[in-house]
Amino acid sequence: MFKKILIANRGEIALRIVRTCKEMGIKTVAVYSTADRESLHVRFADEAVCIGPPSSAQSYLSIPKIMAAVEITNADAIHPGYGFLAENADFAEVCTEYGIKFIGPTPAQIRKMGDKITAKETMIKAGVPVIPGSEGLLKDVKSGKKIAKQIKYPVILKATAGGGGKGMRIVWEEDDFEDQWNKARMEAKAAFGNDGIYVEKFIEEPRHIEIQIAGDQQGNVCHLSERDCSIQRRHQKLVEESPSPFMTDELRQQMGDAAIKAAKAIKYEGVGTVEFLVDKHRDFYFMEMNTRIQVEHTVTEEVIDHDLIKEQIKIAAGIPITGDNYIPTMHAIECRINAEDVFNDFRPNPGKINSFHSSKGHGVRVDTHVYAGYTVPPHYDSMIAKLICRAQTREEAITKMERALDEFIIEGINTTIPFHKKLMKDQRFRDGDFHTGFLNEFDMGEPPEKE
Ligand code: MV4
Questions:
Q1: 48: CA distance to ligand 1 center in Å?
Q2: Residue 450 has what pLDDT?
């Protein structure tokens, strides 16, 4: 087992990793930018190294700074968390060259899923259902239009280097194809330095349901059930839950099998997530694979009662997984608490937290690196806490969440708490009747009167 793990991340996930390491008897090294000196991940790690100024490029994204911190602290493994360098194959490769274990998949596995066309071709070969569309890159407008006509409008243009919704364009009719094609190429070139585009049938009003999987170095793969992540706004997830209210035992069996096939096709090692779009007929299609731990892993931890960070570390150390699939026995919902003004287009709202009282009680979990007196820096993601409620049924989990949201007090900055309170009361949400477009029609209304 590893003796000392350097955590190449910040915030709640860095603290989350520190906690599991402590429980496993592994020493921890935190790295931090000058904007994060007062964060709890720095306080609770055994050692902490300042790696630069606030800008991510000069701190959490700087491979030389992180490797220097590894060198001076003698860590033998790196946990990348999510975001930053978590899906950077070059970083994973540098770790290997230094003789440091990267806690995650191999550089080759990361690359296979990072390029979306390569990922899709790999899935087709593995027999995993994919969205009908072009086989590989589009050569020109003419061949693109030909395929669009075959699969019928509406279609969607996607960048092979994209993911997470960046560089996508919907085309409703042939007359718009050329215009959208030009825009998609220009956007992709600017955003990723790669203007490779492919086309797919546009699935209307889909649900986003993802399957958590774990694979070990011995070639075993199991699935850990699903999460429904359809409640998102501009590709930012706000609420996740497990099980999905749309799931059936049969569908879970099929999607679980498909996710395992996907992971086995690339001999995946580590925990990962296979994302699917699910249409109203419960037909499902592979969308992307995330080769990292995700923000919402906590939802799965609650319903299957397992520590996924511990699983990651054990897999990286060469310990085999049990190989059993897990199905939820409880229901869990997660609300992301972001420092944002929900009455002002969810604008980021960093600043000083004057008072902070976390929800508590049976079935309530809060993962956060913040506290009263802490200042949320403006340089990073606005998520400051995750509130997870677990109960026997979905109805009870929602009721518990309403109670927990009422107890959560954060003063000094605006947060997404008012949004979540409103969502929990929404009849369509309560009925489980939603898809990825749900929040486009959701009206926050006016802010409550200040007393
Ligand atoms: C789609 C789609 C409909 N049809 N592909 C968005 C993120 C990226 N991973 C792919 N995405 C989508 N791809 C086809 N062929 C709709 C989306 C999509 C979406 C997917 C998941 C969660 C939220 C979404 C919001 C808008 C669009």
A1: 39
A2: 61
**Token representation of residue 364:** 């309530």
Cβ 33 vs Cβ 349: under 8 Å: no
* Mean pLDDT computed over every residue of the chain: 96
**Residue 121 falls inside a structural domain:** no
120 falls within a domain: no
Question: 290: Cβ below 6 Å to ligand 1?
Answer: no
Model pLDDT for residues 33-66, shown as the tens digit of each residue? 999 999 999 999 999 999 999 999 999 999 999 9
Going by the DSSP 8-state scheme, the letter that residue 55 receives in this structure is S
232 lines ligand 1 (CB under 6 A): yes
| 283 and 428 inside one domain | yes
284 lies in the same domain as 325: yes
Amino acid at site 142 = K
Domain match, 95 and 231 both: no
How do beta strands 4-7 and 77-79 pair?
A: parallel
Which of 205, 436, 438, 442 has most ligand 1 atoms within 8 Å of CB, for mutation? 436
Per-residue pLDDT tens digits for 214-266: 999 999 999 999 999 999 999 999 999 999 999 999 999 999 999 999 999 99
> How much is the pLDDT for 449?
75
Take atom 26 of ligand 1 and give the residue whose Cα is closest.
Answer: 436
Cite the active site residues.
292
The domain boundary residue, chosen from 172, 201, 230: 201
Q: Are residues 299 and 228 in the same domain?
A: yes
Q: Under DSSP, is residue 239 helix (H, G, I), strand (E, B) or coil?
A: strand
Going by C-alpha positions, the residue among 27, 14, 161, 153 that lies closest to residue 87 is 161
449 part of a folded domain: no
Say what the pLDDT of residue 296 is: 98
Closest to 66 (Cα-Cα) out of 43, 95, 93, 89: 95
What's the CA-to-centroid distance between 152 and ligand 1, angstroms? 18
Pick out the chain residues at pLDDT < 70: 450-451
25 CA distance to ligand 1 middle (Å) = 41
Instruction: Using the atom order of ligand 1, give the atom closest to the CA of residue 436.
Output: 23
Q: Are residues 187 and 219 in the same domain?
A: no
Which atom of ligand 1 is found nearest the CA of 288? 9
Domain enclosing residue 185, as ranges: 132-201
CATH of the domain at 377: 3.30.470.20
